[in-house]
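We append the chain.
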Amino acid sequence: MGVPARNLEKNKETGWIAVRLRPFAFILALAACCFVTGCWNRVELNELAITSATSFDKIDDKTWEISYQVVIPSAISAGTGTSGGGGGPSLPVIVYSTKGPTIREAISNSYRESSRKLFFAHNRVFIISEKVAREGLDQIIDLYLRNPDARETVNILVTSGKAKHILEQLTHIEKIPGEAIQKVISIESRNASILPNIMVYELAQATLGESKSAVIPEIYLSGGVRADNMDELKRTHLGSAMKLGRLAVLKEGKMVGWLSKEEALGVSFMSGKFKSGNITFACSPESDGSEKTNVRLLTSTTKLTPKLENGKLTMGINIKGTGILQETNCSLDLNKPANIAQLENGLRQELQKIIEASWKKTKDMKVDVMGFGEAVHHKYPKEWKKMKKDWSSVLASATIELHIKSSIVHVGLSNKSFKLLNRKEGGD
């Protein structure tokens, strides 16, 4: 079937118009490219100083000293470990400090002495000196919340000495010390549950919460000479090492004291943050304490039940946990249910002792790091409006009721301790 002449004329006209418009379309597309911004604000990687850890010290009441642990990429890249020039071992990080009346001004002063701009998006930890913590952390939290590059996973720790010294300490296993610190506190929190893994945003939430109380783990240097040079890393044992210690307690953003490791463990149970950990206790209450048993708690749950009677607060603390027997030198035959029950009773008594000691210390400090205020607010919202105005006094007069149910679900491959087996062999 042929195409009508009328349609042929129309197609020719359309094609002619398209050919005539092509130059104009090209010019229009070229002009549009002029308005495309592109990466106008890009920053090259070799212009940045990647910070893995930051410390906060106070020289005096008016001057901040901010220190930065900056990564040296050439020293930590895979397959290297030598400096670009001499061929000898190179430090993976450098640490330098700046000073100023405010934290931001101190950071700005780094431009006067550094060839690269500080980049905090990969910052792992904040180390705070005890002096700064006791004066208050409002400025640090405010800086963190305003920074668009801030990471949610930045850990915060406090040290009783100079915070800068923690940044200067090198480690054997991890090349970047800031990353090593973060891994240590994360592993401790998961496997021992004594010290919590606190991030800066969690500290801000706790400070603004109902109880206005918070906790921060302590980090300190053990030993004598700091391992701040490559010569120290050539030895199998460092002269000093970074270790986790006590638990710093804050009230309304200011540090008010310390909790020991055992007291920190009690807070972990009461606040429901205990995940897993080892508990050591005597084989029986009547023993002299020389025979010990170690149980690893694999699960633990805590339920807080506040009760108000005649204006007095009693906090019911219900704890349930299950564990496995890991070590014992008790002369017990674990085939007998009565002996298992004896160990479970010893575990309960030990947990009760830990929690009661922790409660006494926090009560004396008038701080609510266990979250009791949240529980009271949820159950008694009307009464809480009056109580929160003087919550410290209410807490100081409060009492606790402990209900602990712990069970040992596995005793291992042997139902008898080696000590008991050895005695029987000797008797034969």
